[in-house]
């Protein structure tokens, strides 16, 4: 497809992939003397803050395998500098990941996966990165990039005669574009519609996660000051911990299960009783296999940011 015909692009999903793609069009096309297309981003969530459950940090890697640092710098150096300033505490930059095994593994790393300290790599909370990309979109007029919240795309069909892609939203609205980019996650409604034969298989494990903010005068657990921690206990319970900033960190407890869980999956839509049942379940599942220190962090977690993933 030539750039002259690429007039309108629809991106389904306002997550990291969709937002970065939209910015790439409008930062990179002009550098090659091309006119960037008009872009519409449809995001099914109502506001940017609704993704607060994305509390865990992700790696922005500068090595050949990751390449995220280079990609951000290519999009816009000032954007990269700002995102870099929002990084989680780093500690030992030689340590990329820590692994632990045993009965009480959560705060006692047994294995460290090293990386080169010379690589410009860092970690950042997903929701901070996402909200910063949303902010960057606002530098462009809506005639160039328009982000529509609470807009759930459910269908997409190719019109061969017009050489256009038609999309339909859950509220009945329709739109058409020259190029459709589907980036609405693992539970994509568009993918289910277009590829109905493809099914996500339950992997027989469930993650119970949340974010804990420490009190004034307290310190983050020593091991996760340096890098994320992954572990598995003698009872087969998995643990993941990663810092968000100097006062908070993400944790997840993973357990095997033969059955899927019914909703609700987010603390923000749970009742107070459901939130407390969630916390008590984590405490019960980790009793005798994770330390009292970890369990104290569970008790102090932010109930609105509870999350169940399977």
UniProtKB/TrEMBL annotation:
SUPFAM superfamilies: FAD/NAD(P)-binding domain. The chain crosses the membrane at residues 9-29. The keyword Oxidoreductase applies. GO terms for molecular function: monooxygenase activity. It comes from the Eukaryota. The keyword Transmembrane applies. Keywords: Membrane, Monooxygenase, Oxidoreductase, Transmembrane, Transmembrane helix. This is FAD-binding domain-containing protein. It comes from Adineta steineri.
């Amino acid at each position: 497809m030539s750039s002259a015909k690429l007039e309108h692009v629809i991106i389904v999903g306002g997550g990291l992939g969709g937002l970065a793609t939209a910015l790439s069009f409008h930062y990179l096309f002009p550098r090659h003397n091309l006119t960037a297309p008009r872009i519409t981003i449809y995001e099914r969530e109502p506001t940017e803050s609704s993704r607060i459950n994305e509390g865990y940090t992700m790696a922005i890697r500068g090595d050949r395998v990751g390449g995220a640092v280079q990609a951000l710098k290519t999009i816009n150096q000032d954007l990269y500098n700002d995102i870099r300033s929002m990084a989680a505490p780093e500690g030992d930059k030689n340590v990329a990941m820590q692994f632990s095994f045993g009965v009480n593994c959560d705060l006692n790393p047994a294995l460290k996966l090293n990386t080169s300290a010379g690589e410009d790599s860092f970690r950042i909370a997903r929701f901070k990165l996402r909200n910063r990309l949303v902010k960057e979109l606002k530098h462009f007029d809506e005639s160039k990039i328009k982000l529509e919240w609470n807009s759930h795309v459910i269908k997409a069909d190719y019109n061969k005669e017009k050489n256009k892609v038609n999309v339909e939203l859950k509220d009945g609205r329709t739109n058409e574009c020259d190029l459709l980019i589907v980036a609405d996650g693992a539970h994509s409604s568009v993918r289910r519609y277009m590829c109905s034969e493809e099914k996500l298989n339950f992997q027989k494990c469930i993650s119970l996660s949340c974010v804990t903010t420490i009190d004034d005068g307290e310190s983050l657990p020593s091991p996760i000051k340096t890098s994320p921690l992954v572990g598995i206990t003698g009872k087969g319970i998995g643990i993941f911990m990663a810092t968000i900033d100097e006062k908070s960190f993400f944790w997840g407890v993973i357990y095997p299960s033969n059955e899927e869980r019914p909703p609700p999956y987010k603390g923000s839509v749970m009742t107070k009783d459901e939130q407390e049942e969630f916390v008590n379940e984590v405490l019960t599942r980790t009793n005798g296999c994770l330390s009292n220190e970890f369990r104290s962090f569970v008790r102090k977690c932010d109930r609105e940011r509870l999350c169940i993933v399977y």
